[in-house]
Amino acid sequence: MAGHIQDRWYKEEKGPDGKTRKVKTERYGTGMRYRARYVGPDGTEKSKSFPDRQKRLAEQWLSQTEADMARGQYIDPRAARITFQQYAEKWVTHAPDPNTQASMESQLRLHAYPYLGSRPLGSFQPAHIRDWVRQLQENGVRGSYARTIYSNVRAVLSAAVDDGHLPRNPCAARSVRPPAVDNKRVVPWTPERVFAVRAGMPERYQAMVDLGGGCGLRQGEILGVAVDAIDFESDTLHVVQQLKLSRSKPVFAPPKGGKLRDVPLPGPVADALRAHMKRFPPVEITLPWKVADGPPVTKRLIFTGPRGGHVWRTSLNEEAWKRALASAGVIPEREPGEPYAESRENGMHALRHFYASVLLDAGENIKALAEYLGHSDPGLTLRVYAHLMPSSQERTRKAITAIFG
């Protein structure tokens, strides 16, 4: 049924002479006069009211609405009234895992809801996003953390577009720029620094440095290495799990992104693991799988704490790792009663950067390195480590020197 404009102040009646005439209704002079009525794509009648002397505006609005339906760009007014927070709170429940959900909930609650939460989805304009990004920066929220928050807001609005709550994502406007990220170049450690840090680690944790620097594992993957993941015969390490926290409780889980991989196991690293397991026999550890209430899984971990349980990442980082950094001169020694200095760039992830730099210097290609590091996109590997790749001139010199030298 085609839409039409209803005049709520007048109605048509037939007079004694049989002619149609307009007469006042009981609503005459009160409330909105015109009601634009139409049937939406879902088959239900919808309407919008307009004041006296605005019939032309009502007709224009109805024509635009019918044109939007014909183009497939129609937005139900009721759906458009749902607020950003109402929609986002449902959206985050579809996160891939509890840890990701908790992180998204925290970021949106602290940095998005106070500014965007009460705004109806249908009212979003690029200016609202520009103002919000500026507010983030003024509040000191910058860098990759701000970019992550922005990405979550953009994803919420993108899903809202798909669900018919707004016609287009304001974050996609050319005038909207995401928060800037400080693209600091990775500066890999030298072999001397790696060995110095290893020497400063407690003996039961020294082989962690070998796995990080010699196989490129992430910290959680190192903590989750089990005996059955080490294939000494084929010189291969199967990276199939990590040890992580799910809502503050330790669990076993697949590696980041669910990407299982096999990594070459160099001879010196294999020797270090054999010596470690002889000195510190593996221990069976039972933890939930993936989530805190997941099914129990038992693994013979090669790295355990002094009391025989799994290694807690916080104590490892704040005590053993930073003490080793200080002993190697990477960070200053701490004052009595004070914590060690913050040094995010010198976390255990520095061992992965070292691993990548060694492989690239040896001529390994980006695709293979991405596979060993567990990156789903070789483009990410290239963006992070491109500056570490030997130049074509250097490769040429090495190649010719190897022949004629």
From TrEMBL:
GO aspect biological process, one term: DNA integration
Tyr recombinase domain residues: 184-401
Biased segments, Basic and acidic residues type: 1-27, 43-53
Keyword terms of this UniProt record: DNA recombination, DNA-binding
Top-level division of the source organism's lineage: Bacteria
Region Disordered: start-end pairs: 1-28, 34-53
Keyword DNA-binding: yes
GO molecular function: DNA binding
Residues of the Core-binding (CB) domain: 82-161
Family: Belongs to the 'phage' integrase family.
Annotated protein name in UniProt: Integrase
Species, as recorded: Streptomyces echinatus
Taxonomic lineage of the native organism: Bacteria, Bacillati, Actinomycetota, Actinomycetes, Kitasatosporales
